[in-house]
Structure formats: structure tokens, C-alpha cells
């Protein structure tokens, strides 16, 4: 049975963290571990996470960041720690559990069944028979942004921004997190742009062959989200930054070179 670590970025989640749900999942899925990244919270989040770890240290771990650095950096640091553990898969999940935890085995099953896949990402597709509950304004803004991201990436992706993603632990996937992100709101798109660079300059397999979008049967907006409608404007500015730094035709692979150097340094330290 494949082992997985799921990174949960947390910033002031005292009132939204479903501790009981995490405990239940840990009991029924001992091959799944959770790494909570406390991103400099100013409420009782740190105490709650420390209590959770103390109660079940085999299932839960906590990484405390001394100050708030944003979701992108919290996820990045958590993923690097997760990928250095002895597990098959590492991913990240939103702390509000908009995507239910019982979807983790479905994500892992896709990687189990298809060895060429490097990542599985959730897709919030509202179809008959599926319970996708999303505010109408956020839905339409999200669809507009998703179309723009698909065009910039030259990738027929439906939902780059779903907060549930699982990666196969490989040197290539670890490289995606090797350096800090340029963006914060849409680092998910930046991850794919980094993968495009590695594909172009290091002959990695095409994303169309290694990325799988898994339509979610259930997803719901949870009250207290830190993403506001005006943040979609920021996202479009960040999308232009991604194009300029990773995808323009004249790019000389700055990320790919930095990431390769970082990977070599990690290998040297490990030796």
C-alpha cells in the first residue's frame, strides 16, 4: 500500500480546522500522514496543531514558520520536508477540507495505476450527480482565470487552482519546489510553468502525459476563505509574471538552471 504525506498549510485556522476529521482519517488510513505547516499564525492554531501531534505523532507532524510567509512558501517548505521522508507520494490539501479527505485514496490510486503520471490534481467540475458548491461570482471569475492560465501554459487544464494535489516523490517533482515562488496567489500555475521549463530544457516527459485531472464528486466553499474577488485581479498580474519569467519564447531557463544547481547541492549534502 502506497504511503503518502499530505501538507496542510495553516494560517489562523483555529476556528476552521476540523481536527476530528483528521483524526478519523488517520485511524482508518494509517498509510497517510499529515504535515501541518503553521504559517506564523497569531491565534491558537499552533497550540491546536501541537496537541494533535502529541496525541498521534505517527500520523501528524507540525512545521512552525516563525512569521507569516504566505501560502505558497508554506506549501513549498512543507513539500520539501515531505519529499525527504520515505513515502511514495506527497501532496497538499486546503486546511478547510473543501475537498474531503476521503478523496486522498482516489488520488493515490491514480498514481498507483498509471506509473507515467507525476501528479494528480483535483478538478471542480459541476456535473449532474456531483456536489460542487461554489459561490456564483467566484465560479465565473475562476473559469475566466482558468481559461487564461490554460492559454498561457498551452495546456488544456480545466482547474489549476483546486487546493488538492498529489505528486509522485521523484527528483523531478522535488525540483519544482526547489526555489521560492515568484507568485503567491497562483503558485499552482507557477508549478506547472516550472514543469514546462523542465520539459523544454531537460527533456522531461510532456505535461499532457504526466498530469491527471481528477473530477471531484464533492467540493464546497467553506466560510472564512482568505481569497476575495479582488484577488482575481492580482492573479492576472501574477499570470503575466509567470509568462515573462518561465514561458516566453526567448527564455534562457533561469529556473531550470537554478533548480538543477539546487538539486545537485542537495545530492552533495546527502552524500
From TrEMBL:
Pathway: Protein modification; protein glycosylation
Enzyme class: transferase
Gene3D superfamilies: Spore Coat Polysaccharide Biosynthesis Protein SpsA, Chain A
EC number(s) given by UniProt: 2.4.1.117
Catalytic activity: a di-trans,poly-cis-dolichyl phosphate + UDP-alpha-D-glucose = a di-trans,poly-cis-dolichyl beta-D-glucosyl phosphate + UDP
GO biological process: protein N-linked glycosylation
Stretches assigned to the Glycosyltransferase 2-like domain: 6-168
Cellular localization per UniProt: Endoplasmic reticulum membrane
The family this protein is said to belong to: Belongs to the glycosyltransferase 2 family.
Protein name: dolichyl-phosphate beta-glucosyltransferase
Lineage: Bacteria, Pseudomonadati, Planctomycetota, Planctomycetia, Planctomycetales
Gene: pgaC_3
